[in-house]
Structure formats: structure tokens, C-alpha cells
Design a protein that fits this description.
alpha/beta, single chain, 9 helices, globular
Length: 295
């Protein structure tokens, strides 16, 4: 794949537990005071997080982004016939990114976006992460969405998605201008769990093992969602984040008008105009443990 890489980053090859090779980018701080791994959203390539990663590096946080298997710089030549499970992105790919961070005494933090908030609770090495700040994480259920968005999402699941996957052998999302094309198994798992008000926590085939894994998480967490985020409004966030019942959890509702940064929606958290949000993230990472991580 011929994609120009930013001069500010160093390309790395990560190897997951099952031997899958992934492409990551590391943005080095001149004098690091901490490290960050970015856990991206479904179908969003890592270069989307470049502005945040460069800013975090300028503030002293060496930052690692990655493309999960099947997308971006980790995409195979063809997605037709490419098989995987959606949660491989969590317990294999994101876990490999955490393992790639040296254990040198500098605190390791994580920033999530949408799916990244799902993946964090599934990490086998979650105990390595000191603090986790996630944006736009929600349960995915259409019932949490405003009516118009609910209808659009149901059209995607029931009509457009099935047509595209049968035609191409994968979810050709790029044809709709909605992000990266997705492996067919990611589409099927995602569609299945979005049937439930609490996502995979409500799936009878998954609930027990998922709950057990999330119960291991003791990491302080902030979950911030914009009130104009149609896919993951605060009610959707609250339904999902209740699964982190043993973690110190803060919910933050973001009002774009009050912040003066323009519309946020589901994707605006990592656009350059969102720098005030990034400052809040980095300030919370730097806050002493005696303050409970509260800025």
C-alpha cells in the first residue's frame, strides 16, 4: 500500500500473539515524561490520529498508533477471503502495541476512540496501563441514537451492509465515504452485538467471559462523549461503560457550543480544533495519583 508516512513518525512492525504483522507509527517526544498508546475506532486508519499524536509528543508523551489487522497500513492485498474475528483487534493487536512499550519506569497511558473503549477491557496486559481516557465509546445499539440516525443505522445493517458484503466479500465502507473497508468477520460480529442495548455484555454467548475480563480492570478511566455524537451519545456510553464496574470511572459530557470548538459528532475529537480536549487528557495523565486522577 503506497501511503506517505509522516516525517514526524517512525514506522514499526508489531507482531501479535498469533504471528500477524501489524504496522505502527511512533511519535517520539524529545524529553519523554510518559507514553501513550492510541486505541483507534473501527474502520479508522491510524493516520487519522496523527495530529493528536504529534501534539502529545510535543508535550512530552511518546505516542504509538497502530492499524489493526485488515485496515490501513496493516491491510492485506485483498480483503476477499481474509478471515479474523473482530475482537482479535483487542486481545491480539492492541495487546501487541502495549507489549511494544518498554517497561522503563515511564507511565504508560492509553487514549481510546469508540472501539478503543471496548478493546481496553479485553487486554490481557491491561494492568500495564496507568490511566485510560476514551472518547466516543458507546454500546452501538440503535435505540440509544436519535430517531433519524437510528433509521440510517438500521438501513446500513439490514440493507446496505448485506449487499456490499455479498458483492465484494467484505464491507466496502469506502464506497460510502464512511471509512476503511472492513473484513467481513468484523462486519458480522459488529452487526450482531449492535442488536443489544449493552453490546456484547448482553450477548448470551459472550456475557460471562466478557464480564469476567472487564472485572479485572482497576485502571482509572475517563469516558468523554459529545452531546452531538449521534452514534455514541452519553446514554449509550453509560450503558456500555457500566461494564467497567471495578474501575474508578468518570463520565464527561462535552458540549461543543460551550467549548467553542465547533461540532464534534463521532469523529471530531481528534481534529486539530479539538486541542482543548487533548489538553484535558494530558493534564489528567499528569495529575498526581493522590488526586485520584481528577483534573
Amino acid at each position: 500500500m503506497n501511503i506517505a508516512l509522516p516525517a514526524s513518525a517512525q514506522a514499526l512492525t508489531l507482531t501479535s500473539i498469533d504471528g500477524t504483522e501489524l504496522t505502527a507509527l511512533r511519535y517520539d517526544a524529545a524529553v519523554p515524561r510518559g507514553r501513550i498508546v492510541v486505541a483507534g475506532a473501527t474502520g479508522v486508519p491510524q493516520l487519522y490520529y496523527r495530529a493528536f499524536a504529534e501534539y502529545a509528543a510535543s508535550q512530552g508523551y511518546t505516542t504509538l498508533t497502530l492499524d489493526y489487522r485488515g485496515i490501513g497500513l496493516s491491510r492485506p492485498k485483498s480483503l476477499r477471503g481474509f478471515r479474523m474475528r473482530y475482537l482479535d483487534w483487542a486481545h491480539q493487536d492492541l495487546a501487541a502495541a502495549v507489549d511494544a512499550i518498554p517497561d522503563d519506569g515511564l507511565p504508560l497511558n492509553m487514549v481510546g476512540h469508540s472501539f478503543g473503549g471496548h478493546a481496553f477491557g479485553l487486554l490481557p496486559n491491561v494492568a500495564r496501563v496507568a490511566r485510560f481516557y476514551t472518547f466516543a465509546t458507546g454500546a452501538g445499539w440503535h435505540g440509544w441514537m436519535p430517531r433519524a440516525e437510528r433509521l440510517r443505522v438500521q438501513l446500513m445493517w439490514r440493507v446496505i451492509g448485506p449487499v456490499l458484503t455479498r458483492w465484494h466479500g467484505f464491507l466496502a465502507w469506502s464506497h460510502l465515504g464512511m471509512g476503511e473497508d472492513l473484513p467481513v468477520d468484523v462486519y458480522r460480529d459488529w452487526k450482531h452485538w449492535c442488536r443489544y442495548p449493552r453490546y456484547f455484555f448482553d450477548d448470551p454467548a459472550m456475557a460471562e467471559q466478557i464480564t469476567r475480563r472487564f472485572d479485572r480492570v482497576r485502571t482509572p478511566i475517563v469516558a468523554a462523549n459529545a452531546i452531538d455524537d449521534l452514534w455514541a451519545p452519553p446514554a449509550s456510553r453509560d450503558a456500555f461503560m457500566a461494564g467497567y464496574r471495578n474501575a474508578q470511572l468518570q463520565h464527561v459530557d462535552l458540549d461543543p457550543r460551550a467549548l467553542g470548538i465547533g461540532p464534534i459528532g463521532h469523529m471530531g475529537y481528534f481534529r486539530r480544533r479539538a486541542q482543548p480536549l487533548w489538553d484535558e487528557v494530558l493534564a489528567w495523565f499528569a495529575a498526581p495519583a493522590s488526586e485520584g486522577g481528577v483534573v
